[in-house]
Amino acid sequence: MSEENEYITLVKLTLAGDHEAYGTLYEKTVTDVYRTVRFLVRDAEEAEDLVQEIYIQAYQSLERYDTERAFRPWLMGVSMRQVKSYRRKKLIQFRFKQRIELINTNTGMENDFSLHLVEKLANRPLLEQVQRLSYKLQQVVTLHYLNEYTQEEVADILEIPLGTVKSRIHAALAKLRQKQRMHSEIARKVDNVNEIG
Asked: What is the pLDDT of residues 88-131, one digit of tens each?
């Protein structure tokens, strides 16, 4: 059996519910995938995480795989799309940071909360707070602050009026400010207790 036929057989077995077959497919292809990803993603730990995401995505996409095509090029296509997505996220984070630094330099003023949100979206606690918002509020925050869409573009994407986008952004920021104040108040009370004790 040729190597390509072996891949196709393993794909068919995986689709039939044989999880060991996917494990074998992983073992036979992971070296090439990792080497490619590692070349494109400098950080070894991030490359390893990305490889895991690639195999999860490939598994979820197997039903759409055309067994008439060669498997390895298809898998590399999945890999390249995941790497592209990873690089786009990194670039967005970098641009956010640059924009905030530029605003701080030019104005010398303290950021308003929306800029603080942009800077801190990579911050796990704030990200968790955003994830606790209602789905409608999460959508506008993610599109506007994380993906840098204008409010008009967010309205088009979500197919809702511009006024609704503005009110949802306002509501999301208000809720996040309130949570931030609560956390600050709790931290202050803990500090006071520690000083007394």
From this structure: 787 776 666 666 666 556 654 444 555 555 555 555 566 677 77
Q: How far apart are CA 104 and CA 142, in angstroms?
A: 23
d(CA 144, CA 131): 15
Does the global pTM surpass 0.70?
no
The whole-angstrom separation of Cα 49 and Cα 55 is: 10
Long-range contacts of 164-170 (CB under 8 A, 24+ apart): 165/140, 168/136, 168/137, 168/139, 168/140, 169/114, 169/140, 169/141, 169/144
DSSP assignment, residue 62?
A: G
Structure tokens belonging to residue 98: 């640059």
Q: Say how far apart CA 152 and CA 149 lie, in whole Å.
A: 8
